[in-house]
Amino acid sequence: MNPFEIHGPIYLPIYAVICGVAFLLTSKFKQQLLSDKENTSEAKITATAHNLNPYQAAYLSGGVERVFLAVCGVL
To answer: What angle do CA 25, 27, 32 make, to 5 degrees?
Structure first.
C-alpha cells in the first residue's frame, strides 16, 4: 500500500524537513511582500484613502452595517 516503502522512523524526519523548508520559503516570501517599499509608501496609502467614495470607506470601517447606515444618511 505504501508506494515509497518509507516507514515511520524514517518518514518523520523527512516530513519535518519538508515542513521546515516550506515554512522558511513562505516566511521569506511574506517578508519580501511586506518589505516592498513601493506598495506601502505613506503617500500611496494617503492617495488611495482620498480616492475612496463614502460607501467604500463605510464598508472598510464597519462592513455592511455601516454601508446601510451611510445609505440611510444620504436619503
So the answer is: 95
Q: What gap in Å lies between CA 70 and CA 74, rounded to an integer?
A: 6
Q: What is the pTM of this model?
A: 0.44
| Sequence-ordered list of residues with C-beta below 8 angstroms from that of 69, at least 6 positions apart, any chain | 58, 62
Residue found by looking up cell 464598508 in the block? 59
Question: Cell triple for residue 40?
Answer: 506601502
- Grid coordinates standing for 2? 505504501
The CB density around residue 48, as the number of other CB atoms within 10 Å, is 9
Could you read off the pLDDT of 51-64 as tens digits, one per residue? 889 899 899 999 99
32 three-state secondary structure: helix
